[in-house]
Amino acid sequence: MPRRWTCAAAPAGDRVHVFDVENHAGGPVYVHAKVCVVDDVWACVGSDNFNRRSWTHDSELSCAVPDEARDGRSPTDPAGLGDGVFARDLCLRLMREHLDRAPDGSEDADLIEPAGAVAAVRAHAWPWPTGSSPARKDESRPRSPT
Q1: CA separation for the pair 17, 119 (Å, rounded)
Q2: Cis peptide bond prior to 75, omega within 30° of 0
């Protein structure tokens, strides 16, 4: 199966990961949209950057979705409030798409818990070569098999 992600950085150990996505041919994928899902409860989708200029001067738009519909599936929210159906489903749909998983959710077992989801993405990713920088084009980095 072609690997579509490159692990660009893990600046905070296991807490923050940065990945660069590629198509099946190994070419970069440009996506202007931004998606943020927090704790499977709140989601924001749109084109704006997280800064004042995007919010006040540029013609960008985003929509935040505080989901009050509670998802009864396990695992449940540690605070006991329940996860949001929209936020969790959005996160899982995106993970399935980018990991080439079955769209029906039949392969979601390792994507439900955050640690499992990160492990699945890391296992699907090429490592970023030592000494190179994701900020500059580096043609020596490994490419996805075709």
Answers
A1: 11
A2: yes
Give the pTM: 0.71
- Under 8 Å between Cβ of 42 and 33: no
Residue pLDDT, tens place only, 123-145: 887 766 555 544 444 444 444 44
pLDDT surpasses 60 at 27: yes
Residue 140 to residue 83: CA distance in whole angstroms: 42
Return the amino acid letter for 65.
Answer: V
Tokens linked to 91: 């996160």
For residue 76, give the DSSP letter.
P
Per the model's pLDDT, the better-predicted residue between 79 and 36 turns out to be: 36
Strands 5-9 and 62-66: unpaired
